[in-house]
Amino acid sequence: MSAQRALLIILDEKIRSDRLVLPTLPDIALKVRERADDPQISLQQMADVISQDPALSARMIKVANSAFMGRSIQVNSLNQAVTRIGLSQIKNIAIAMAMEQLFVSQHKQVQQQLDRLWRDSVQTASVAVACLQFYKARHRTCKLNTDVMALAALIHNIGALPVLIEAERHPDVFGHPAFMQVLIDKIAAIVGLKIIKSWGFGEEFMPVVEHWRKPQSELVPGYTDFIRLAAINRNYYAPEQAQALLANYVTQELVPVPEFMQQPEIAGCYQDVRALFQ
C-alpha cells in the first residue's frame, strides 16, 4: 500500500472514531480568553495576563499603534495598548497574535509545510481585513468586526494542522505536494470544525472554516466572503470560478474593481496588517 493511501485510510478512520489528536490553544490564549469572558475584569488585570508572554505583549503594542486600530498618539506600554484596543476586541486579537505558536514541528518537512500554512494564513488575514475595512468605510451599517475577521482568517484552514502532524509518520507523502493539497482540501473542513468546537469558538467562525472553499457568494456579505476574496487573490479557485465570484463581489461592493489589491486604500491596509506578524 502506498504511503498516500495509508495516510488517507488512517486519517479517515481517526476522524470517524474521534481519535485524531486536535491542537489545543496556546496557554496564553487560553488565559486571555478565560479572563476576557469575566465581566468584572479590568483593563489593568487584562494587561497583567498578557504581560506573562513577552512576545504577545510586544505584538499587542504593535497592534495598538497600527492602522488596524486607526492610529493616533503612539503608545509605548502594554497598559496603554490594552486601553486603546479595549476589552471588547482584546480577546480575538490576542488569540490571533498567539496562533503562530501552534505551527511548530520537530520534523523538518512538516515544519516547512507548517511555515507555508502560516504564511498563507497571514496573507489571508491581511487581505481579508483590508477588504473588510474598505467595505465598512462605505457601508456604515455593516456589523462585521475586524477583530473577528482577523482571527477567522488565521483559523480558516486550521483543519490542515492535524493532517500535517499526522503525516509526520508517513514522510514519503511530502514528496507528493499535489496529493497533500488534495488531502487537505478533502479533510480540513471536517477537522477544522472539530477543532474550533473543541476550542469553544463562537458560531460566527464555523461557516468560515466549513464553507470558504466553496466558490459562492452570500446574499448578505459575511466573514466567509472576505476569506474568499483572499483566496481569489492567491489563485485558489479555478479561473472561471474566481471570475464569477469576483464579479458578484464587485456588484455587492465588497471591492470596487476586479483588480482590488491595486487600490491604494486596500493595498495600504494590507501592508499594515501584514506587518503585525513580522
Question: Would you kindly provide a brief summary of this structure?
Answer:
The protein has a domain of 194 residues: Hypothetical protein af1432 (Orthogonal Bundle). The protein is built from 14 helices and no strands.
List keywords for this structure.
Hypothetical protein af1432; 0% strand; mainly alpha; 14 helices; single chain; globular; 63% helix; 278 residues
Q: What's the total helix number?
A: 14
Mean pLDDT: 92
By DSSP, the count of extended strands is 0
Q: Give, in order, the helices and strands.
A: HHHHHHHHHHHHHH
Which stretches of 5+ consecutive residues score pLDDT under 50? none
Provide the CATH topology of the domain at 3-22 and 102-275. Hypothetical protein af1432
Class based on secondary structure composition and strand pairing = mainly alpha
Gyration radius (Cα, Å) is: 19 Å
Assembly state = single chain
Shape: globular
Biggest pleated sheet: none
| Fraction in helix | 55-70%
CATH architecture group name of the domain at 3-22 and 102-275:
Orthogonal Bundle
Tell me the span between the first and last alpha carbons: 42 Å
Q: Could you give me the name of the CATH homologous superfamily of the domain at 3-22 and 102-275?
A: Hypothetical protein af1432
Quick one: CATH class of the domain at 3-22 and 102-275? Mainly Alpha
